[in-house]
Amino acid sequence: MLLVALGIVLLGLGGSHYWSHYPRVSLTVDGTTRQIRSDADTVQDLLKNEKLVLSPLDLVSPPLFTRLSQDLPVQVTRVTTKVEKVVLNIPIEITWKTQTRQNLRRVRIQKGILNQRRQTVLITYYDGKEASRVVTQTLTVRKPLYQLSLLDNQDRVEKNYAIREAQKFSMLATGYYIGDPMVPSDTTYMGHKLQRGLVAVDPSIISLGSRLFIPGYGYAYASDTGSAIKGLRIDLAVKDRKEELRYNHRQVTVYVLEKTKTW
Length: 263
What we know:
Helix content is 12%, strand content 50%. The protein has three helices and 14 strands. The longest helix is centred in the N-terminal third of the chain and has 18 residues, at 2-19. The protein is rod-shaped.
């Protein structure tokens, strides 16, 4: 029995001594580094023994066929990609522009060509951190620009409106003004003192408090209603009787820009 026990001890010592002869490698994967003794022949065998699953994009250093050696550093870099669409605006080509304070506030209206460069970008990440960006496709798009800009007193832009993208109505217009015998009050439904740029609408069609643009009349604000202003009708505040005649029973296009508390 003593001889058997001694044999087992010697066998155990021999096995431990044998395992210590396997090379020790440093394996880094998913942000963690471990020291491993392995009987694998190559880096590929090592990863297989460690049950590491690689994606087709993952990088391994050194290459998979490299034979293991003492203190060999082995690193697995997880690689992922993402595709982004990027729009780059090129300076606008202005073909026509006007700036006025005829109605309510200072505005700029301009037409031109809006140039956009649309790029498809492939972004590559190494272990979750961006490593590179590659433009895989570039497309230049030209489209008409029709824009109204609200300006402050220093002519700085407060807000831009793309007129072509606004909801629009074709409406029959009339005009009214302070002193018109048919106008019972010089104060609008919303309590504003009547002035050019304020208009009366049917609230079921255009909400009161809406910023509007009417080509030929200009910037406007829906502030009033009227007993005869029903459906696709609009009443434009004008300066006098002469200007009223210019707009009476005229078909106009009304662009609805936005509903706000102020003009």
